[in-house]
Design goal:
Elements: H1 32-39, E1 44-48, E2 63-69, E3 72-80, H2 82-96
Antiparallel strand pairs: 1-2, 2-3
Length: 108
Amino acid sequence: MTTPAPVCASPGCDEAVPRRTGPGRPAIYCSPDCRTRRRQHKIIVEVDHPELSPDGRPVTRVWTVRLRRSDHVVVIADNLGWPTANALARELNDLLHPAPHQNGAAIE
């Protein structure tokens, strides 16, 4: 009796993973596309207007800062002015996606 092939580890993919015959770790993805798809779910910083303004200001005068990764969203700050919202978004982007240092390594 043969055991069924394992299923791909990429979210939403239910393809069978091909069996390896040589040395090394067993594959967990069905294809290189599925392996890179998993890495593409990076966190994005968004600055946008909220649906409603709780203090009566026009909605176009208040800002919300959110973090998003695919379908998951977290509101970081709400009811901010434009300069504050953009400064916070810039700092979050720097934290999440550090710029390479001059010699090619990220600053820690």
